[in-house]
Amino acid sequence: VYALNKLKYAKISGKENGNIKKGVIFATYSSLIGECRGARAKYRSRLKQLIQWFGVDYDGVIILDECHRAKNLVPTTGAKPTKTGRMVLELQKALPNARVVYASATGATEPRNMAYMTRLGLWGQGQAFPEFINFINAVERRGVGAMEIVAMDMKQRGLYLARQLSFRGVSFTVQEVPLSDEFVK
Question: With a threshold of 0.90, does the pTM exceed it?
Fold first, then answer.
């Protein structure tokens, strides 16, 4: 098990990084978008470094935990896409055989924030919506009900799983606590 941010900007399987050929690499979104400005670095970006290590034929698993961090790939008018969103999309494009898991408690709070979830098969070649923009226009025009239908469809196809904690056996009391003058300030 290796942390990407602890590795040198060199070939992951190379001598500088301990000849890592197999294993699990953990990367924060901050490290995924990391770039090196040093003249001696073989790889300028962590993303390119990872893609090289995986290899174009990689068919293993990529788990994007807290994937909502990649939202705003298709922002509202006037804003720019986030670097995190762009890098997550680029990672998926570079590794077409990889199996991707999107894990988040708030992954689809707004349909627009799903743009990086390209592996769901909701848009693209052979789908009802040729491009993400077609999907987003249809869902936003129809409102919350449309998003509920999308969620039901994904659940039925095994693409979506939602868990809730039980509150069985839980009790609580409401207590009013007066605020001190210091706290009010």
Answer: no
